[in-house]
Amino acid sequence: MPATDRLYPRHPRGFKPLLGVRIATLALNLPGPAAAARLKALGAEVVKIEPPGGDPMAQMSPALYRAMHKGVPVRTLDLKSQEGQTELQEVLQQSDLLLTAFRPAALKRLGLDRRSLAARYPRLSAVFIFGYPGAQAHLAGHDLTFQAEAGLIDSARLPTTLLADMMGAMLVCEAALAALLQAKLQGQGAQLDIALSDAAGFAAVPRALGMTVAGELLGGALPEYGVYVCADGLVAIAALEPHFQRALAQVAQGTTRRSIARWCKAHSAAQLNALTRQHDLPLWAWTT
């Protein structure tokens, strides 16, 4: 499966609960567009508005940009001009939901702050994506800094994925659906904030509670839960529950760290993946 296919929910093809919902998004980079892509997959009509310079993601990862904007009309507007403002107002008059990723000062300059939106478009809901919550919403940040603050980085190596951004996209979807539902029930738009630092913090809760700290339950204390070397790569084993431990003990002839390591080393990734289906084992092996 292409990696970009995982951007979209795997619901039945005809499941379109957001048919008739119109969403305007000004959000650039990753969280906003990823959320908009998922909302569109649920049936919403999405229009993307970009500044004259375009979306930086189009240069950073053209493949990801294309995937997130599949079937989404993109309009270029200079929101600092009167013409751009006029066109934006026309779009918002016809929209049910607005997504933005501007900081508070920029929202105020563009007339997109809470008070201005509520006065002009009382039925319009909005989800504001910020880096940090509340009084810190004006602070600069990126996925890397959000992960660092949440305690998800403990070495000089860069993270393997943009966890805060991707988790943030899911929280944006959650907020969008909640805002739309409340607007439908009450007849008035709802305005919600999503902070990407909170998204990283949400993902970090098990670590913050010590579950994944070195030597703890999911941090290496159990031989049945870890990453081992196999004949041609690596294998992740997560045999936590007793019935999985019994199955692993049977095929690996024991559940000591040494016996599991010896068993893994004696098999290729393909062989191990075949065994997981045969013995109902929670493991995944891959070549390196």
From TrEMBL:
Pfam families: CoA_transf_3. One of its GO terms (molecular function) is transferase activity. The keyword Transferase applies. Coiled coil: none annotated. Residues 1-36 form the signal peptide. Keywords: Signal, Transferase. It comes from the Bacteria. PANTHER family: ALPHA-METHYLACYL-COA RACEMASE, SUCCINYL-COA--D-CITRAMALATE COA-TRANSFERASE. This is CoA-transferase family III. The lineage of its organism: Bacteria, Pseudomonadati, Pseudomonadota, Betaproteobacteria, Burkholderiales.
